[in-house]
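Page 42, continued from yesterday. The earlier attempt failed because a stray header line got pasted into the input along with the sequence. Redoing it now with the clean sequence only.
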Amino acid sequence: MTIEEAQKTVDQWIHTYGVRYFSELTNMAVLTEEVGELARVMARKYGDQSFKEGEKCNLAEEMADILWVLLCLANQTGVDLTQAFGESLAKKTRRDATRHLQNPKLQEK
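This time it went through. Structure tokens are written below.
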């Protein structure tokens, strides 16, 4: 599925099952909440914390939830994420064309 198709799929789902989009501000809060949920799982899987009883390592689910809300926000605000991502990639390529290659901290040990 392309990013464009994902945006269209989310929009169709919202209009079929979701009644309407939550407000942009509500979705921003939901996005922040979802990022926090991913952070919690990451801290337990890769950090120093351990999972509490009943918690599960659901990285894919949390990442998908973030993507869902981001796609909602893009649809609501008229952002073409395919175009925006392409522009972001081009910007990063121009800016960082040699920066990371020359970073001794990133060289394999």
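Notes: DSSP finds four helices and no strands in the chain.
Reminder to self: strip header lines before submitting.
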